[in-house]
Design brief:
Layout (H helix, E strand, L loop, with lengths): L1 E6 L4 H10 L1 H4 L3 E4 L1 H11 L3 E3 L7 H10 L5 E5 L9 H13 L4 E2 L2 H13 L4 H12 L4
Parallel strand pairs: 1-2, 1-4, 2-3, 4-5
Bound molecules: 1,3-dihydroxyacetonephosphate.
The site of 1,3-dihydroxyacetonephosphate has 12 residues, from helix 3 and helix 4.
């Protein structure tokens, strides 16, 4: 599965700890991240991470574009609800696209624990079916 990992600055330590704790699960998947978050996760876990631009420079939108193309299966986005972000519209747009395409999105540690365990248990395997049928519609297979 394609998994995106994103965290605002004050939540980066939490997401890095989370990624390290669940490395045995994450290493079975393809990881994507916004720029700074991705760097931190790569350094801490030594897992490969496809890095996009930093969030304020368009990284959230790049991940949103992958959602719109049905190329992202789950998002871990540790948002900071107490700090104004210069790119708040991008953040809102990313969350909105998750809702448009029914992509599982965890915005805090509590939900992230459930999502990562669901990922491991196969609760997201329906995504393979969705992707297969959309590939067939697009003539990709
Ligand atoms: O701002 C972000 C998400 O909105 C995260 O971007 P960085 O990972 O580059 O800090």
């Amino acid at each position: 599965m394609n998994i995106a990992l994103i965290a605002h600055d004050k939540k980066k330590d939490d997401l890095v700890r989370f990624a390290v704790a669940y490395k045995p699960i994450f290493e079975k998947h393809t990881l994507f991240a916004t720029g700074t978050t991705g760097l931190r996760i790569m350094e801490a876990t030594e897992l490969p991470v496809h890095r996009f631009q930093s969030g304020p420079l368009g990284g959230d939108q790049e991940i949103g574009a992958k959602i719109a193309k049905n190329e992202m299966d789950a998002i871990f986005f540790f948002r900071d609800p107490l700090t104004a972000q210069p790119h708040e519209p991008d953040v809102t747009a990313l969350v909105r696209l998750c809702d448009v395409y029914a992509i599982p999105l965890a915005t805090n540690m509590g939900t992230a624990e459930i999502l990562v365990r669901g990922l491991e248990r196969g609760d997201l395997d329906w995504r393979y079916i969705v992707k297969e049928s959309s590939d067939q519609e697009n003539g990709n297979n």
